[in-house]
Design a protein that fits this description.
The chain is an all-alpha fold. The protein has one domain. The protein has seven helices and no strands. α3 (49-82) packs across α5 and α3 crosses α6. The chain starts with a helix and ends with a helix. The relative contact order is 0.14.
Length: 200
């Protein structure tokens, strides 16, 4: 926790941007903990809410966009070869790739909330030749929701912000399953509605 304090004190809003760019491309940075800690600093009056949110959003968009362009340029073999060095296992890559085929756009949105998945979804969007417009539409919406959720949570919890880390590690599996189930239901409903609209 000391390094988070050092990051905020010495680099302020710019530190948030750099940390999130690094965290999203795969560096071992606890992104949710960082965002919640930023919210705690807002609670303490050390940072302002809107600049914090905009800085986090810029960092998240920067990191996810960099991953997307790396996917276009370097492809899947690079991810499988060098992913383990960034704590991205081949098993996780294959599992996310299968999910991406079914739920690509929605995975770009909810992937931010699943540790290990957000590092891969944008890369897979690049590999699967998503247009930048399609990628940005879903990924940037996800980035805004993610940043807003955790910074606001840290601000609301105040002194108890550290509870987020405990609950994340304890209930992350249930969160992943709930998000995937919700996405599957929404995707099925959206697909059926689209088919019915085309028929009529």
């Amino acid at each position: 926790m000391q390094y988070l304090n050092h990051l905020i004190e010495h680099y302020g809003y710019f530190g948030i941007i750099i940390a999130l760019v690094g965290g999203i491309i795969g560096l071992p940075i606890p992104d949710e903990v960082l965002l919640t800690y930023v919210g705690y600093n807002v609670f303490q009056g050390k940072m302002s809410y809107l600049p914090s949110l905009l800085s986090a959003f810029a960092g998240a968009c920067g990191g996810i966009s960099l991953s997307y362009f790396l996917g276009i340029k370097l492809g899947l073999p690079f991810l499988k070869r060098f992913g383990p060095k960034l704590h991205i296992t081949e098993e996780r890559v294959d599992r996310t790739k299968r999910l991406f085929v079914k739920f690509g756009p929605f995975l770009l949105v909810i992937g931010f909330f699943v540790p290990g998945v957000r590092h891969i979804t944008a890369y897979l969007a690049g590999i699967n030749s998503y247009t930048y417009r399609k990628f940005a539409l879903f990924a940037y919406i996800g980035a805004m929701i993610w940043c807003f959720s955790f910074i606001t949570l840290g601000r609301v919890l105040g002194e108890n912000w550290i509870m987020v880390e405990t609950y994340l590690s304890k209930y992350s599996l249930y969160l992943i399953l709930a998000l995937l189930l919700g996405s599957a239901i929404f995707y099925t409903y959206w697909k059926r509605k689209k088919v019915l609209r085309n028929v009529s």
